[in-house]
Amino acid sequence: MARVLSRRTLLGSLALGAACAAAGLVGCSDGDGGAVSAEPAATNPLAGKLGGKLVLRTSCSETLVNAAVSAFTEETGVAVRIVSSSDGDLLSWYGGDSAEGAGSPLEPAPDVVWGADPSWYAGSEALLEEYISGENAAMREGCRSVGGRITPVTRDVAVIAVGEGAGDGVEVTGYEALLDERVVGSVAMEDPSTSARGLAHLEGIVSGLSGQSADAPWEYARDLLAGGALVSARDVLDAPEREERAVALTSEQRLMQARLLESPAPDSVYPREGSCVTCECTAIVAGCANLRQARAWIDFVTGKACQERLAAEAFARPARSDVAEPDGLPDVEDPTVPDRAGLLALWARVLDGTWEPSEVAPEEASSAR
């Protein structure tokens, strides 16, 4: 079930309310999770601004969303209603504005969706409006429009967050180190079937270990689960802080944002087997009520000014080729699109215990000869 996105900031709820009113943002939280406004009021065009309203359904972090939406409203005069979602539910909604009739007032039909990599949109292209940003030519390799409907906005990297007490004497440098008996029971990861971060790590494990054999990544996943690794339906980044688990498979962006907020943050490890790089994308919903505003959103978030702001305020790697990376980040490969359907089919078999190795072990092959 989606919920109106909480919009807590370091300045506190009073400053937040004033900022929301000034910027035209809607769907803000009163600090207790209650919605201040159930429906955005359209703004009047001022000084040549577009005005109107937009409903954004997103699975992105609050830090990233706040940075983009506040700038978009300031630039265009568009009032934005923000509804949060998981990656898995990003393209599932029930809205009072939909053709099917009334729905929950907290879940209006979105005009745009934002979050997850292109694999999460596969098979749902009929739900999306065809539109290519006017900034498409300025995008990096692997960050240009996908199928004319899906628009990458930022890049993210799968990293391992290592907190204090993560296995005495064990240096965590990659995935294989997590199988050490002193570490494996302290690992938390997000469910790849509902989380783009979880899927990115599964892609990284498969890409990094498949050179050993086709079965190696899935034997690893089986052993990780058997060792007591936690698979969570929620964000696991704060697991080390809550002292539930010392190691979390998360994303670079989430970890860096925690540091920006001056929260205690674990160390980041880029797996030596390779870090999976993906894009967080946005798209217009076909038949949406506010098409002009939706197109303006796509053009805005791919523009240079917004990309620079997201890098500076949300520590997000830009999709544009003419915007520098946030300071201190290592070089990474171009983004990839995971084979979501294939990965999840095998992951499900590992989870239910029906997966079995498909290859003949080397020693068995030798004895057969």
Task: Give the integer mean of the pLDDT values.
Answer: 84
CATH superfamily label of the largest domain: Periplasmic binding protein-like II
How would you name the oligomeric state of the polypeptide chains in this document? Answer: single chain
**End-to-end Cα distance:** 57 Å
Number of helices: 9
Structural category is alpha/beta
Task: Spell out the helices and strands N to C.
Answer: EHEEHEEEEHHEEHEEHHEHH
CA radius of gyration is: 21 Å
Please tell me what the overall shape is: globular
Low-confidence stretches: 1-24, 26-39, 94-103, 360-369
Model description:
The chain has 369 residues and is α/β, with parallel strands linked by helices. It folds into two domains: 3-155 and 277-318, D-Maltodextrin-Binding Protein, domain 2, CATH 3.40.190; 156-276 and 335-368, D-Maltodextrin-Binding Protein, domain 2, CATH 3.40.190. It has helices at 13-23, 62-76, 196-209, 216-226, 252-260, 291-301, 304-314, 340-352, 362-368; strands at 3-4, 25-26, 53-58, 79-84, 112-114, 151-162, 187-190, 230-232, 247-251, 267-269, 277-284, 317-318. Helices cover 28% and strands 15% of the residues. InterPro entries: TAT_signal. This is Extracellular solute-binding protein. Residues 1-21 form the signal peptide. One of its GO terms (molecular function) is thiamine binding.
